[in-house]
Design brief:
The complex is a heterodimer of chains A (114) and B (115). Chain A is mainly beta. Chain A contains no helices and twelve strands. Chain A is 0% helix and 50% strand. In chain B, the strands form two sheets. In chain B, strands 2, 4, 5, 6, 9, 10 and 11 form a seven-stranded mixed β-sheet that branches. A four-stranded antiparallel β-sheet of chain B has the order 1-3-8-7, with no helix packed on it. Classes of the chains: A mainly beta (114), B mainly beta (115).
Chain lengths: 114, 115
């Protein structure tokens, strides 16, 4: 069965620092990739997604992610974080042509210090 | 912007009791989902529902669970006889259609506590 790993469980950064959150998946077939964010007290919201084409995907709020097929990775980046980016970030994978089920990583809790 | 809504936000129940968790998906969406997250664990897929029937389910979704779209707006998850290990946050989601480039939109969740 496929799995998704987010190696950083907790990340603490100061404002204006750069962010990179790791996401790796274990599946050799074609995948669709997602990053969701959950701000405190709110629901999961889509940050960005990759289906095909340019492996560098730009999302909302200045986030981007790069799909590296050879590394089975889809890392999330932001050049300069803000206090309002404090949230939990979830990577998710959907196997193409195999239903709609999303498999989630364990989440990374980001705290940005003002 | 349309949102998925869920009620109640919190539910406390006794072991062995039945619970029904309610969701109102986004109105023009056709696919509906339930996921759960046990405290400290990953978000896990339970079931997807399309055209009034289950289209996929996970191993977690056993005979204790059922889903229903009782009317044109609600989508419910029923747990027949709750167990302690059913305590979790339950998320409903919906998408306009299947696969392709469709995004699943999540509700705020119902936190279920089984005592």
């Amino acid at each position: 069965a496929q799995s998704v790993s987010q190696h950083n469980h907790h990340v603490i950064l100061s404002e204006a620092a750069s962010l990179e959150l790791g996401c790796n998946y274990s599946y050799g077939g074609t995948v669709n990739l997602f990053w969701y964010v959950q701000y405190p007290g709110q629901h999961l919201q889509l940050l960005l997604k990759y289906f095909s084409g340019d492996p560098l995907v730009k999302g909302i709020k200045g986030f981007e992610a790069e799909f590296i097929k050879s590394k089975f990775s889809f890392n999330l980046r932001k050049p300069s974080v803000q206090w309002s980016d404090t949230a939990e970030y979830f990577c998710a994978v959907r196997l193409n042509n195999a239903g709609n089920m999303l498999t989630f990583g364990g989440g990374t809790r980001l705290m940005v210090k003002p | 912007e349309p949102e998925v809504t869920q009620t109640p936000s919190h539910q406390v129940t006794q072991m062995g009791q039945e619970v029904i968790l309610r969701c109102v998906p986004i109105s023009n969406h056709l696919y509906f989902y339930w996921y759960r997250q046990i405290l400290g664990q990953k978000v896990e897929f339970l079931v997807s529902f399309y055209n009034n029937e289950i289209s996929e389910k996970s191993e977690i979704f056993d005979d204790q669970f059922s889903v229903e779209r009782p009317d044109g707006s609600n989508f419910t998850l029923k747990i027949r006889s709750t167990k302690l290990e059913d305590s979790a946050m339950y998320f409903c989601a919906s998408s306009p259609s299947s696969g392709g480039q469709e995004t699943q939109y999540f509700g705020p969740g119902t936190r279920l506590l089984v005592l």
